[in-house]
């Protein structure tokens, strides 16, 4: 059996197969069908602008002689992209097989709808007579750059950003919930100054939210200025019109930021900036996934078993941290694609080459793997419980970490004029480095230092579990 001949077609990639449910919302924004729908939307809005004119820029229509449109005409035109579904996708594909040009196929598709407008609106509609205003003075990139900007804007604002924000909020909620849970830290993988579980999660939530603020502030640029960005065809066909003002009005009407200086293509710098920020979010999230994986391996987090699920095909006891491992892999794939997009899209030979055409068709894949990772981490975090017993035992087994506050207190006492405080670091190093000590040994050492009574009492009362500094307060004060 040739699997390529199976109907319905088998997906080549996992995003359209195994992981389809997690990434399906992106199809409405970043699929090939979504691209064509966006192109139709741009063509329709440009046609309406040419007929209606631009207040303060033109007297009546932008193109002299263009008829005024009725409300019914505008509603019909805007209904073309709104009704773009399975039948329309198939029809457009048929046209493209004839034109062997995707944007030209869109132009012909819209013209067909203009020709058939009387069937819906009656003979009084002017739409059959404005067919030559479809794609007027445009190069394909005028339509494509605006379409991609709208698509990416929609995907980020409607799908990716809400999911990523919900994840950051989930991490922040966990941080607040566990702000006071003491935990032995590991610097360089070795026992170090205690912290709290919540404070460490708060650091990650803070980092994620900082990247999200950058993504939220992204600009989505667009242009409409012809084959080499000079408005050449515009000014020859219709001289006397302030075409840059018309272009600016149109781009902003679409909800985008106008780029006044381009070659044939919009320079794509905004895309590179956005993709770099999303990739950086990915990498912070990757750090969260590896840290949580490690906390699970240490027993600081315990995974809640899913009824009926299998952890290992041969070891029945196992509950593997697969959500975080899957997230790592998908974040790496997403970031690699986003890096490629960011580095290649900013370069176009002279006034135009076509490398961006294929490159941009992978935007959906890049966001899809990131969205899948976000989904995995959210589900993984939702199935965790704190391993309190392990955390407490780990702290109690590492009293030597209190060497830091003791030698620091000795330094402060020395500055205050207390005698016998010489070489505090070296004395604690001799006591603790490379060896385990218990509470009794440490308190005996403190008692023999000759510290002021209040300082000695404070140090004697200290335990690894209480030596967490301002960790809980930091979560409360600085995690928005």
From TrEMBL:
GO terms for molecular function: N6-(1,2-dicarboxyethyl)AMP AMP-lyase (fumarate-forming) activity. It comes from the Bacteria. It is an enzyme of class 4 (lyase). One of its GO terms (biological process) is IMP biosynthetic process. Pathway: Purine metabolism; AMP biosynthesis via de novo pathway; AMP from IMP: step 2/2; Purine metabolism; IMP biosynthesis via de novo pathway; 5-amino-1-(5-phospho-D-ribosyl)imidazole-4-carboxamide from 5-amino-1-(5-phospho-D-ribosyl)imidazole-4-carboxylate: step 2/2. Residues 348-468 form the Adenylosuccinate lyase PurB C-terminal domain. Its EC number is 4.3.2.2. It holds the Pfam family Lyase_1. Catalyzes two reactions in de novo purine nucleotide biosynthesis. Catalyzes the breakdown of 5-aminoimidazole- (N-succinylocarboxamide) ribotide (SAICAR or 2-[5-amino-1-(5-phospho-beta-D-ribosyl)imidazole-4-carboxamido]succinate) to 5-aminoimidazole-4-carboxamide ribotide (AICAR or 5-amino-1-(5-phospho-beta-D-ribosyl)imidazole-4-carboxamide) and fumarate, and of adenylosuccinate (ADS or N(6)-(1,2-dicarboxyethyl)-AMP) to adenosine monophosphate (AMP) and fumarate. This is Adenylosuccinate lyase. It comes from Luteimicrobium xylanilyticum.
